[in-house]
Fold each of these.
Amino acid sequence: MEDEVGKLHNIAYFTGALAYGAEKNLGQGALSICFLAGKKFGLEAVDNVEQTEDPEKALDILNSALARRGIMWEFAPFAGDRDTLVEEEGGIRKMRLVFHTCMVRNALFRFAHEQGQSLCQMAHGVFAGAMEKVIPNVSVKLETIQTGPNSCLKEMIWEAKNEG
């Protein structure tokens, strides 16, 4: 077991180093590249899943689909000081999520690298791409509200795709 943990720590360190190098060489372009790479993976990771327009049910479906792929990512809706989980304005819907367990955050801490950069953008892409498969005909993005050592607060923002 210790040997496996050591391997995971080395992978986490390597991943952090890779992100650091990409950010130094590509600058802000690394964020877009990583988001798009993550989104492609997210779209493929949840192929042939149940679809729903209910965002809470969509989170459950996504969580189960990712778990089947071996991705354990603990996230849940978070109302905070809001009256409702979902806010809507001008066709744009928003829901806050708390991410308790995050392999990216663990990798970044292992390497002592800043949160919110390229690896976080890759994770955002995975989430957005996967959620676009679960909630049909929407465009999804994930924005960070607050990062931390034990959890991150993010906002899922989605709106109907423009057909045309």
Note: The longest strand covers residues 92-101.
Amino acid sequence: MRLLWAVTLSLTSLSLCASTDMIKILGSESDSTVVQKAQESGITFISNASQYQLILGGRAINPSLYTPSLSARQNQVQNEVLWEGANGPFNLTISNSNAGQQRAQALSNSSNYNQIAYNPRTSGIAVITGQIIVSYTDGFDSEFLEASYGIQLVQDFAHLKTAFYTVNVGQDIFLITDYLNQGGLVTIAEVEVIENFAVPN
């Protein structure tokens, strides 16, 4: 019994340490630049039952996946970096940018970075994956939605009536998600975000 109790206490303390490390990595303390740029974007959306605000000029780059092009580096140099952070494998930055440029980027899969969003409830910063998660109804399938909205089907879980899509260059992921939700063909469509990354021990 003592051994079981000692193991339980050890596991509890380890989980508390892991939680503390994750909070530090996520930068859960609200930063005025993050909040300001989230409010300036004017773009809010719901994902995973939480409200998020797109962060104006925000970028997430996973160094192991992307090698930024010269033009991307030049743009970063031209735009003053206002804030830097990290979440999981991603390096996060916020630079000066305007809303028109932000929306025009449209989160296409040709980008060498991901956009980021702020969660006012948790003060966390989420990485926007560039995919839309759609739960569709019995009357329509994933291919019908792909053709109807001009989006790209990534993966379909027909037994769950759930599919993942990406938008094309020139399409706005937030507008397409709104159109899907208002079109009456789906149960729900959400922009996919990852706010909490697993922290290795």
Note: The first strand starts at residue 44 and ends at 47.
